[in-house]
Hints:
Mean pLDDT: 92
Strand order of the largest sheet: 6-7-8-3-9-10
Strand content: 15-25%
Structural class: alpha/beta
Amino acid sequence: MPGQEEKKLLVVENLTKRFGSYIAVDHVSFSLSGGEIFGFLGPNGAGKTTTIKMLAGLLQADEGRIALRGLDMGANPRECKRLAAYIPDRPYLYEKLTGYEFLQFVASLYDLAPEQFSRTEYFLRLFDLLDWRHHLIECYSHGMRQKIIMTAAFMLDLPLIIVDEPMVGLDPKSARIVKELFKSHARRGNSIFLSTHSLEIAEELCDRIGIILQGRLRSLGTLESLRREARLVDSDLEEVFLELTGAEDLTAIISALKKQ
Length: 260
């Protein structure tokens, strides 16, 4: 119902994507409320990146729908994209721009007010990028590129941040800052859609977790409900994840490796 959808920040219904005869994402459904950090987990090739690209409006679904604040992505792609920031695991940046010029470019795309753009200095200082802001991006390390794209996302202060492997390339200080920024963003009524292979990060940050396996949503719930589903009441997320994704041969593999 439209009225109910508007109360949800993100609604995904029967999302499906095919590449030829291969079904990468198979009728996936879930929703996010404001103030929620949602973890999206799965093995390699499970359909995580394909789902993320559809949520970010970079890939068109073959079936199903995505709605942000009641707006349908298919019918209103421009409006939906203005509600969500996307942080990929390998950010593509314009290398002949300086970091500051890139942030100005992003701000112009979103008609960002000057007073809001002025907050970039705060994030650049947090990420130790202030002295690098006028250097060309081509001389940035992977971690610095990750931090400049995160600065852009937090600068925009949009209702939803979609992030794929946020800690790749980050030093421990920056990783801790990112986690606190995610928590702060959610406390202000916004949402984070977080895809990661780091189960420790998911366990620390996420209010709910969805596990995708072979293109289908295998499990969805809080860590406690996933523990009950896996019948591992006192276990951490790693053990729960391995149980729910069917890694039955892991014990035998580890045992064999220890004997080598």
